[in-house]
Design brief:
Chain lengths: 393, 302, 186, 76
């Protein structure tokens, strides 16, 4: 006779035929596919590296985000709502002035900035959960001096058992109305439009790995300048001036590899981008998802980012030669950044609690080729976040 | 909310339904319907009667005729088939012939010849079961729903009380308990487990606020011959009563599952039974013949 | 591309990468055709026989001949399958057992995964095990979960791709319709 | 690096990977236990990714991932 083999599943299933009325765990369908997540995060910038004039308290952002997604119409449609609220405060780089030896001195705006941003986005997905689906998104974001409305559509379509095609696009119309426009002689109203299209192909390489390659083209047109930033143009200090058109092309490759036998997975992402302002960037991100059992999971992530300077970037122009465009915004200079982050998660039933911290260090030396003009406003920053999810299956 | 108790006798043992309700009439009505259901199941599946559905089924043994079973009977047979697999053949509803042979009131140990003869008329593997048709190929084969039907009746009675507006109550069919719902104040029911050696006193009590509790033991129908105990639980693979625990109690989502697990554990004996219960993962409590207890249920202070 | 790029590609012949991309897509298409033919509505459901969870006798489609059978391919790792199963259990419990049966084909590679899920979500219908994936291959499954409603003559009358909770109502109507149909001498 | 060179690079990469995928036996839908795991999604924690991308976007010159972007900001 065979060895006895206990099987609670077989026992309960056989009993279920006799006692159908045990509703204990028949999760009713609506509750089963509603998922909600709340995130709170605090972003703090450290002190500047170089010499500084103005209030050194750098930027601080407290943000909260709530996402809810559920099924509609018996599962034919998926609806996802995201609401975000951020409170920003602290000083930010204003312009760069040369000292006696023509070395750059970063001048910061006063710490008077205290603004908040609210954003809402709605996404409707047809045939959610299947590999052939279409998602329509609409979003609106507003803060005291900036409002943005965007719409987008995204389609995923299997070509065969191993290949999925993805494509889509979005359009955003932004309205810029700077604060204290009269006081600092800034423009009072400006608009800009951004159109973005992407296409991607994803392959199932084997039972444990998938690869995705995609291209994205972003077209920006209109007021692309930062209304608050000034520029030392010889003896004058003028408002910075950027072209009113920008084309960016990006290529992205993503690789996922499962190590299910040790309850882990590897994520590798590489992104190359290049734009018509002469700014090229490389981004590599690697994450390791490690399951620790009993619902625990640890996710360390490393990220390296490098960008070259825009053609019209300079800290200042001691002897200007009629340049049409000029900006000292550090985000257009040559620099690199390396960030390490850790995220710990614990699933309890249908809930999941998560905590995370990230340290972001930027420096000219971290760029792929660290040459080019000085970038005095580079800062390090930290970000800590906490999350609560409901409806994980 | 007052407590209403309805005692009665069925399935050859003392039974009681305890209900907490606002109005006594609601309790009385629910208890009456529940009791009627237990009586129906007792009438239909009792192997002590010779005029009920089970008797007619057993009478077809060896006749070559296949009997078409109704939905409930077919589900009970399927449930027994699942237990047969799990217990490596020890749980066998065709052990009826052996159970009768070891008629424990007779005080006599049957001869090996008669045991072999009864064993020849036993064996689920000999039964032809193509749902919903069942054929007992050998004359004298018997079906015995022991370890299944009493526990199933307890769950059915609890379900019928729920369907008649009862939220707080418990059904006790000879020690097999099915909870309708915790006390009105949310506290759990206290279930007493009788001491195997002297069933009069309760040696342990378990808190129960949902699901079912079933206990298999050799104390109720036991025979002592020349100082040796013979229980009413027979191992069909060798035709003799089981030398196993004195009692095994299991907690589960239903009394049916609890009863099945405790009966299989009793049939597997001391070592394999304990291993089975550990592997199954349901809370369990077992007492050996010498009174040693083991298991995962914390026993509330007596 | 941006207007002031010095050597804009438009002037050149079709660049090499586009021809390569077309060749790659063609190869992918050929490959797709190679996979087994997907059983569709109106076709006879291929018979199969598989070991049954918790029972020593195997179970097959032929054993349920004369009944309306709902075959559901599922696995414990497939989240729409997990969402569907309690709904199928409610459907089974609400229909008389004699004319209708659910036969769930589990394709988990390790049996323990299926058992772990079923212990948490017990279902009263038959579960058969196909770790090697022979039956889904015979049915030419294109996605998970996939389910088939088979009439009393063994012909597929409805196929579900993925799971939407509205499918349960559709199934009830289809089963109701099939129950009223006469059974041809098979 | 001119934009058309970029497209050539990405297409070459795409073709290489795709041909690799075609060469191996295709993974059937019922053999995707590992691929269906939470940690194998392209973006397992989309809420956290959105906030993270927004933090990077506000301090880097180039930004955006594949997929519809939205909710720009006057980050300065």
């Amino acid at each position: 006779m065979l060895r006895p083999s206990a099987s609670l599943a077989a026992l309960l299933s056989a009993a279920a035929a006799l006692l159908p009325a045990t509703p204990a765990n028949a999760a009713d369908s609506d509750e089963a596919n509603t998922h909600a997540s709340y995130r709170f995060s605090e972003y703090d910038e450290g002190a500047l590296h170089g010499s500084v004039v103005g209030d050194p308290r750098r930027y601080r952002v407290l943000s909260q985000q709530l996402d809810v997604d559920t099924k509609l119409d018996g599962g034919a449609w998926g609806l996802k709502l995201d609401a975000t609220h951020e409170v920003m405060s602290g000083s930010s780089p204003w312009f760069v002035a040369p000292d006696a030896q023509l070395r750059p001195v970063q001048v910061l705006s006063g710490a008077t900035i205290r603004d908040h941003r609210s954003a809402l986005s709605v996404a409707l997905t047809q045939n959610p959960g299947t590999s052939a689906n279409t998602t329509y998104t609409a979003s609106y974001s507003s803060e005291r001096d900036y409002r943005a409305a965007a719409i987008g559509v995204e389609r995923s379509q299997p070509l065969d058992a191993a290949t999925t095609l993805g494509y889509g696009g979005s359009f955003s119309h932004d309205v810029i109305e700077p604060t204290d426009a009269a006081l600092y002689n800034r423009i009072t109203h400006a608009t800009k439009n951004t159109a973005s299209t992407f296409a991607s192909l994803a392959w199932v390489l084997d039972r444990d790995s998938v690869l995705q390659a995609g291209v994205q083209v972003n077209l920006g047109h209109g007021y692309l300048t930062d209304p608050y930033k000034l520029f030392t143009y010889g003896a004058d200090i003028l408002a910075e001036r950027r072209p009113d058109r920008r084309v960016e092309a990006a290529g992205l490759v993503r690789y996922r590899r499962s190590y299910a036998q040790i309850d882990a997975a590897l994520h590798l992402d590489y992104r190359y981008a290049q734009d018509s302002w002469g700014l090229t960037s490389h981004t590599i991100e690697a994450s390791w998802y490690q399951g620790l059992g009993h619902g625990w999971r640890l996710v360390p992530t490393l990220r390296w980012y490098s960008q070259s300077a825009a053609r019209f970037y300079a800290p200042f122009l001691a002897a200007p030669a009629g340049q049409r465009y000029y900006s000292s915004d550090y985000r257009l200079g040559t620099y690199g950044a390396f960030s390490t982050s850790i995220n710990i998660r614990k699933a309890i039933g249908r809930w999941e609690v998560s905590l995370g911290a990230e340290r972001y260090h930027s420096a000219k030396g971290l760029a792929l080729d660290g040459g080019g003009a000085a970038v005095p406003a580079l800062v390090d920053s930290t970000r800590v976040w906490a999350g609560l999810d409901f409806g994980i299956d | 909310m007052d407590l209403h108790r309805y005692a009665f006798s069925s399935m050859g043992c003392p039974c009681e339904i305890q209900l907490e309700t606002e109005f006594e009439s609601v309790a009385r009505d629910a208890a009456a319907k529940a009791q009627a259901e237990v009586a129906r199941l007792d009438e239909k599946y009792s192997h002590y009667r010779d005029d009920n559905w089970l008797a007619r089924l057993c009478a077809s043994a060896g006749s070559g005729r296949a009997i078409e079973l109704d939905e409930e009977a077919a589900n009970l047979i399927d449930f027994a088939a699942a237990l047969h697999v799990q217990s490596a053949g020890r749980f066998d509803i065709t052990a009826g012939a052996l159970t009768r042979l070891w008629d424990l009131q007779s005080g006599r140990v049957p001869t090996q010849a008669r045991i072999d003869e009864a064993t020849a008329r036993t064996g689920w593997h000999r039964v032809e079961w193509q749902r919903p048709r069942l054929r007992l190929p050998i004359a004298g084969m018997r079906i015995d729903f022991g370890g299944v039907v009493k526990e199933y009746a307890a769950d059915r009675a609890a379900e019928i009380c729920r369907q008649n507006g009862i939220r707080h109550g418990i059904v006790d069919l000879g020690g097999d308990l099915a909870v309708i719902g915790a006390h009105a104040d949310g506290s759990a029911w206290l279930a007493g487990i009788k001491a195997p050696r002297n069933p009069a006193n309760v040696y342990a009590s378990i808190e129960l606020d949902r699901g079912g509790l079933a206990t298999s033991g050799d104390y109720e129908r036991v025979m002592i011959v020349d100082g040796k105990r013979y229980s009413h639980i027979v191992d069909p693979t060798n035709g003799r009563p089981v030398d196993s625990f004195a009692s095994v109690s299991v907690l589960a989502a239903s009394c049916l599952v609890a009863g099945a697990a405790s009966t299989v554990a009793m049939l597997l004996g001391l070592e394999q039974g304990a291993a089975y219960l550990r592997e199954l993962g349901l809370p369990w409590l077992a007492v050996d013949a010498d009174g040693r207890t083991r298991g995962t249920i914390e026993v509330a202070a007596k | 591309m941006s207007s002031h790029a010095s050597n804009s590609p438009a002037a050149k012949p079709v660049p090499r990468p586009r021809r390569a991309a077309v060749a790659m897509l063609a190869a992918a298409m050929l490959l797709a055709a190679g996979i087994g033919h997907a059983v569709g509505v109106g076709e006879r459901a291929p018979d199969f026989r598989l070991p049954q969870l918790g029972k020593d006798a195997p179970l097959g489609l032929a054993d349920l001949h004369g009944k309306i059978v709902f075959v559901d391919f599922w696995a414990s790792w497939c989240s729409p399958c997990r969402e569907a199963m309690p709904q199928y259990e409610k459907l089974r419990a609400s229909l008389p057992g004699d004319g209708f049966a659910i036969l769930a084909v589990n394709v988990d590679e390790t049996r323990a995964d299926a058992e772990k899920f079923l212990a948490a979500h017990p279902v009263g219908y038959a579960i058969v095990l196909d770790p090697a994936g022979e039956v889904p291959k015979a049915y030419g499954l294109v996605g998970m979960p996939t389910s088939y409603l088979i009439d009393r003559n063994g012909v597929v009358r409805w196929r579900g791709q993925g799971f939407k909770s509205v499918d349960i109502d559709t199934l009830r109507q289809e089963i109701d319709k099939l129950t009223k149909e006469p059974v041809h001498a098979s | 690096m001119r934009p058309d060179l970029l497209l050539r690079l990405t297409c070459a990469l795409a073709c290489g990977a795709a041909l690799a995928a075609c060469a191996t036996k295709p993974v059937q839908p019922w053999e995707r236990a590992h691929l269906a795991r939470w940690d194998m999604r392209w973006d397992p924690d989309s809420a956290q990714t959105a906030m993270k991308q927004h933090a990077y976007f506000s301090k880097e010159g180039s930004s955006g991932t594949i997929g519809a972007a939205g909710g720009g900001c006057g980050c300065n």
